[in-house]
Amino acid sequence: MYRNFLKRILDIVISLGILVFGLPIWLLICILIWLDSPGASPFFVQERVGLNGRTFNMIKFRSMIPDAYKYGRGLYFDGEDDWRITRVGRFLRKTSLDEIPQLINVLIGDMSLIGPRPMLPYQYEYLSDEQKRRFEVRPGITGLAQVKGRNAIPWSLRIKLDIYYIDNLTFGMDCRLILETIAAVFSHKDILHDQTQEEVEDFIHKI
To answer: pTM, whole model, 2 decimals?
Structure first.
């Protein structure tokens, strides 16, 4: 009952409330991004894999220069001093405000507030059938893996935590994860920089 109906209702109500009541802040962020990088879109859109393996376009506030993926090591593994991150983008990442536009994804049904983080298409191709169980629910803005280690833990462990979440999903767990996410954002813990692709995407390199 909760997974199939009430969870979706709560996603819509909470996301709509945050978007509406925070609208002046979101507009200000858009203006600051535009002033920091004139002419560039304030949004970054990237294809991700979601429920039942279907792809969708995930939206974030843009925190890097346009076409950042053409420089350095790509969009995924950056350090605190990465020159591709804009001044406004650095603040947005530190406060996790760059994730706010994903509430639009939640409203239209691509994502949920709580769930496994959406993967990139190339990552999906390396998953085993058991690991693909993480797509039995909508991907989330935050989830169990995020509060247990954020990007300090490799994907193989994140996937195990995601499957544990799916097997034990309750209203109480989602409420707890929301509170733990808020605490994690303010603590700035478990955020590592300058990791190699092999360290983070270990599930690919073990195949």
So the answer is: 0.86
Tens digit of pLDDT for each residue in 101-159?
999 999 999 999 999 999 999 999 999 999 999 999 999 999 998 888 767 788 889 99
Burial classification of residue 33, based on how many CB atoms lie within 10 Å of its CB (0-12 exposed, 13-18 middle, 19 or more buried):
buried
Helices (H), the chain: 7-21, 23-36, 87-95, 102-107, 121-124, 144-149, 155-167, 171-187, 197-200, 202-205
Using the structure block, give the residue that is written with the tokens 């199939």. 4
Q: Cα separation of 176 and 179, whole Å?
A: 5
- Its domain, for residue 188, covers 2-205
Q: How far apart are the first and last CA of the chain?
A: 37
Looking at the structure of the chain, the number of domains it has is 1
CA triple 157-162-158, angle to 5 deg: 25
